Amino acid sequence: MKQLLFSLTLLTAFQSIFAQTNQDVSFYIGASVGSAFTLGDFKEADISNPDAGFAKNGTKLDLFGGYFLNDKITLTGTFRYQTFDTKIEDLVNEFNTETPNANFSADTDSWQVYSLLVGAAYKINVYKKFAIFPRIGIGPMLVNNPSINVSSPDPAITQNFIRSAESGFGLGYEFGIGLTSNLGKRLALMPTFTFSGGIATISDVTTVADNIVVNGNYNVVVQSFNLGISLAYKFY
Prior knowledge:
Number of helices: 2
Protein name: Outer membrane beta-barrel protein
Distance between the termini: 35 Å
Keywords: Signal
Strand order of the largest sheet: 1-2-3-5-7-10-13-14
Domain Outer membrane protein beta-barrel: 8-229
Organism: Croceitalea rosinachiae
Helix content: 10-25%
Number of strands: 14
Pfam family, one: OMP_b-brl
Radius of gyration: 21 Å
């Protein structure tokens, strides 16, 4: 599925080379679905790293809009939902390697990230039938971290790892480029290629490692590279 989305996005980018953008449009609204590739500590699965997010590559869904101030500058708004499964298999394998025959198993949930981003895009003409739109956005972000529970059924085994599921707010951002390929008067493909993320403080997260309990704030840095297929409706 992700390979298909990637291929379709590249095809859309190629098609936009031959499409003429229409600057008589007043504003547009649309939706996008695609992939979110995790970056930095957010994707790390090292239990000794307190900032590790254990996050796999995930998916994203955008609801977006734009208002043309002039033929160069567009005000943009995006509501983004992202979900990331956790690398729970890596943790289980690490524990079973360190303690053979302990039969460690795990339970976990997924990361849920909600962002509301407001920003701007600037049109750069490459030549008469092709333009790119560098864009930037910033706004509030809500993060739900997954619960993680790795343990052994053997009561003699004290090795374990537990992290409670909580929610926290932070500041989100995105930056990247967008393309436009018209599908007639009203519809347009508007793929974007953006880095997004933010910093959120999740309070009262309980972490247990080898039966040592720590309760405190979890300052998570969410980072991902996003791409997908976007369809927009234009208003004149």
